[in-house]
What we know:
A: alpha+beta, Alpha-Beta Plaits, two-stranded antiparallel ribbon, 6 helices, 8 strands, B: alpha/beta, Phosphorylase Kinase, domain 1, 4 domains, six-stranded mixed β-barrel
Amino acid sequence: MMKYVFTFDPNRCSACSSCMIACTDQNDIDLAAGEKCYRKTYDTEIPLDDGKVYCAYLSTACMHCDDAPCIAACPVGCISKDPDTGFTIYDNTNCIGCKSCAMACPFGAPRYRKEDGKMVKCDGCYMRVKNGMKPACVRACSFGALDCVPEDQVTGAYSDKACNVLINQAGLRRKAH
Amino acid sequence: MTELEKKIKAKIPGEDTGIEIKRSLCAVCSPGNHCGLDCYVKDGKLLKVEGTLEHPYNKGKICTKGASNRDYIYRKDRVRTPLKRVGARGEGKFEPISWDEAYQIIAEKLNAVKEQYSPHSVAFFSGFCKWYRPILHRFCYTFGSVNFGTDDSTCFKSTDICHHLTTGRGGNGPNLPNANTFLGWNYGGYYSNHLAVPGAQALKERGGKIIIIDTRYTPAAKNLADIFLQINPGTDGALALGMAKIIIDNGWADMDYIEKYTYGFEQYKELVQKYPLDKVCQITGLNPDDVFAATKLFATNGPAAINFSASALAHRTNGLQTNRAILCLSALTGNYDQPGGNIPSVASYLHKRGGFDTREMEFRESKRPHDQLRIGETRFPPWDEYCDEFQAMDLLRQIEEGTPYPVKAIVGFGFNAKMFPETDKLVKAFDKLDFFVDADMFMSYTTRFADIVLPSCSSLERGEMKAYEGGYLTFTKPAIPPLYESKSDVNMLCELARVMDLDDDLLKAGYEACCDWMIQDTGLTVADLKASDLPVKVPGAKPTVPGEYIKNGFKTRTGKFEFYSTAIASYDPKYGLNPLPDYVDPLADENDPETKANYPFHLIAGARIPNTLHSRLHEVPWLRSLRPDPLVEIHVDDAKRLGIGEGDKVALSSPHGTIHLKAKLTSKVKPGVLMMAHGYTEANANELVGRNHLDPYSGYPGFKSLRCAIRKEAE
């Protein structure tokens, strides 16, 4: 199976949120109806042990985990892996709105849409990727913070930037209680 | 879902999905940008936008605001038809009328003012998005009025005038590809000029050094800075003079360059002696070691380029001289018009430098009347000399006082009353007008006060000419038809010229004829440009070559780079203007003991955030969702002291007014400093700014340095 991964460089991000707007545009997310964008940015000030403050600028969405717990959690088999991209995709025709996927996800990626009572989430723009395009959020990032590349192109230091390094980084820097 | 249904849902362009990519440009922000846009269109509906990868200017990149184009264009409050006011001014009651009726009313009212008073009593004013300026400018002159004004009265022009005074040529760009050090003075980039970031990133990646000087700890300070100087607001001029002293004292000045190319070095050297490091640090709140290290890096790790911004420093009552003090550092170190320094260039069309000439200036100058003073003329001498527009910061006074002659009508395109200090007084003064017409895409705060409102279309619904760096010209085609009964601003003006039968055959021939006239020396026609979906290379366009300008002498009175401005020295001493770029306290007019005690905070109004641009985007739902409430940023220690918590309701007040908003606690600004975005109707920062809190050189308001008080309000 071919696999694409999202990469993120926290030292290029400013939480400008163009990725969120592009995701909203791409997926027709109805913010006015209370829907939430599949991607979320963070502009967070984290107090450090030395009294200084670390300003974290982050952008997160579905991590498209290898062993995605949401897939197993869904009782009606809505969620699957796309063989061409490795992204965690879904067909919510049969979704019963039980939110098991959301509870299984450590990142809060699946969203429950009140309008039709079904789950929605980031599908990695897998149809765009299959058609030779970048995901909408990546395409909108002017600073090279977000990217989406075949897994075999992620090498060396670059792999540190993959997936949830941002969370580790923020966690490590959090003030000890 | 079938494969085709999936493709349609994913908006994949192609014959099977019926989705077509049409090329346009984003005109949400200033024509200084206007990025190429791919519009995904099906059945005349816009489905989504992306930056155009093949576009020579933005190379596929668009910003947060540009990414919102679909939500912007389909805003529910678009003006749909021409409207005539039926309620009281400001009440917001209008009835739809036809275009013919609108033109008839406008013609009748403007001609009545012309006959009863004079053509100059009609002021023509352009707000955003500026693209129609050459046509409006000529229309104004052909009508017979000297009074063409724009939002340049508060943006861009101050920095431009500073450069003209000092170097004889307008704004310059930092030549980052050849620089070793970038002095990012008030460089924000990420939230204000996204295309300026990749160049700074590239410089850093190849080992170049970056100094960021700002009042807040920005993403640029975090991601790019080797040295970050968090300066007290409005004290940048003192820092620049202090840096100059360090540079001269340590023998880092480029004496060959100074002798060959500059004027007034001895007076300047004497001036900077007034700014020893300890005094500078007292004023700026900086650490002496940091200032020394930054100065050494800038002066000894050249070539070094400096960032100049259109508004950040100019929005202070000491703004123009601050920019002059900074610009002097470029010549002091021999970096002005040298590779890796700051390279001056000349605009081709609408402030864009294309490396070719158009007849934009002649297009309007040939029709300019000379029989009256412009609004504000004689109040700000450098403005009068270097800008052919009225200084709109005197508009309120002239409407109220009627001197030296009355202003009785305003023809506005995107007129934004919230740009003006004491906005409430300005809209009240509209009652003294006989007529106010405003063209806009949206029912704005300002259109409520108009007699006639005209529906403008967006850039995606029209064709327009545009120049780009690298020698390019383009003429776009509409990606979608104009919504409702909206029209392109320039078509309104050319049609109105016909209805009024103005003595101007070119204007009456239409926008494309005007463009053809302006680009007649380029070897291209509008038809040539329209044949391409992408910008076209102008034959013979020349890149700006470093050193080319100064080779034959500066276009100043002395032919040199002027540390000592002979232009300023030539102005009447009654204005009290200083030919040397000395530092003045940005709150000098608000420092009496009572004001100081009652308004202890330093407010920076108008600091950029990613989801807003002036007043234009607050009502775009996608963008508003990123920051739903108007917020004032306050340092966590100040907030604690005042018992203010995150999201608490607070009141900000100045001697001029009070506004209500919510608090955002942060460590990114210094204690004693408050920061907010501007342009909100429900929390308009300009209600706090006094109409005379102005830079005496440019007439620019001190939006970003004023005294205010903050208090927590009951829930």
